[in-house]
Amino acid sequence: MKLQNPRALFIAALLMLTGCQHKPAAPTNLFVDSGAVPGWTRTPETRTFAPEQLSDYIDGDAGKYIKAGVKSTSTADYKYKDQIQVVVDVYTMTSAVAAKTILDSEPAMDAQTPTLGDAARLYSQSLTFRKGPYLVRMVAYQESPQLPSALLDLGHAVESKLSR
Amino acid sequence: MKEMPEKTRRNFLKDCAIGALAATAAPLAFAHDVNPGSANPPKSKVVVARDAALYGSGANPEAARVEKLLDRAMQTYSDSSDPVAPWKKLFKPNEVVGLKVNTIAGPGLSTHVALVDAICERLKAAGIKPGNIVVWDRTNGELERAGFTLSSDPNRVRIIGTDSKDVGYDETAFSYGVVKTRLSNLLTRTCDAMINVPILKNHSMAGVTLALKNMYGVNNNPDRLHPNNCCPGVADLNMLAPIRNKFRLVVADAMTGCFEGGPMFKPQYAWRYNGIIVATDPVAIDQTAWDIIEHKRAERGMKSLLQAGLAPKYISVAANPEHRLGTDDPKRIALQEV
After folding, report:
1. What is the predicted ipTM?
2. Whole-prediction pTM
3. Distance between CA atoms of residues A151 and B296, nearest Å
4. Which are the contacts of B322, defined by CB distance < 8 A and separation ≥ 6?
5. pLDDT digits (tens, 9 = 90+) for B217-255
6. Residue A136 sits at the chain B interface (C-beta within 8 Å)
7. Residue A43 in contact with partner chain B when CB distance is under 8 A
8. Number of domains chain A is built from
9. Is there a contact between B107 and A107 if contact means CB atoms under 8 Å apart?
């Protein structure tokens, strides 16, 4: 690129400005594809929300993520054995401390604490874990005796996609 | 949506006035006194109807039981032996009746389709044409994710989000207190009367969300109304004329509620309350919801919302002399559990 050219200089400046704006991570990189984990399929569509759009997705819950420091939120729908609907949210926080702040703000109740990421909580219908700056929440809308271990399998697969 | 009659601004203002008159003329069984200066004001009635077998052995409430539970709640509320009579008292056959549901939390914690179906059946039995019943929320996507099937067929119950093409938000900006906002055209122009069909939930900022907070789904900038535990945002929003004048009834879905972690669905904090709660006083029903959530939190050994700094302070503001949207005084709430 010849920067002495005013037009090229303008385009370069524009590209730099665009690069400075919030740019959510590519959502497809965060989610496990259909079939990668036995029994799990993913809806092709994924959605990503910048902090200023987060309330469109999670209403008033957005406040605590923004306060803790969230860079972007991506979400995808999964199905387990074509029956159980599961939503997987990946919150990319500004730091590991920010991810910890969110997880620690939620009462653990009767959670199991499997070895996954930096910390994890497993319930009969949900799994939440954090790894570095990422907070991952998996919520199922139906129950099944196999679901907790299936969530854990999916959780490990998602964890492997998250870079520190 | 082309089938929806677009109303002029003049007609809209006229509708607001008619709505106010209709509300004033509502039969005593559905009236609630919001004037704390009255010498002997009648109490605000709140009916909590529950059915322990509502879900049977399935993941969803059984439709037939939901319909019976709704009838029990409404008939108790209106002291009627006829399941259709309460609806006839509230709505005229020529009116377009909207049902504002709450679907932001997906299928786990949204207004159940079975309850909406039951209300629609009763409205139809009361003489409302199917095409004049409009089930709505903020977006088509949220409605679909909650299990509703979108429809704009003028001969069927319409199910539609404000973000639908040709719906959108009214160009008129409404203001009260801290609120300056635009309201869904479904509220301001399409519908003559409204039923609020919210969900029993904890809310991480407001503390509790039921009737009053559900109005954050009717305007274009709810994100601006969350500071200070949504106070006075919730109360001020409910003061806007289209909301005050058109909402005539709250039928709260308390089949599954959440006592923590709301408004989104986190199954570890959800429980089956197996209830439907009915009132016309949105403050009294919210006060009742707060009590129910506090009871559950205590049962689970959690701090009260008050102790957690999450008391829904907008409720008392909604009841204060400036707002007079209803009563939060337990002595003035006639709670009936059936």
Report:
1. 0.81
2. 0.86
3. 27
4. none
5. 999 999 889 989 999 999 999 999 999 999 999 999 999
6. no
7. no
8. 1
9. no
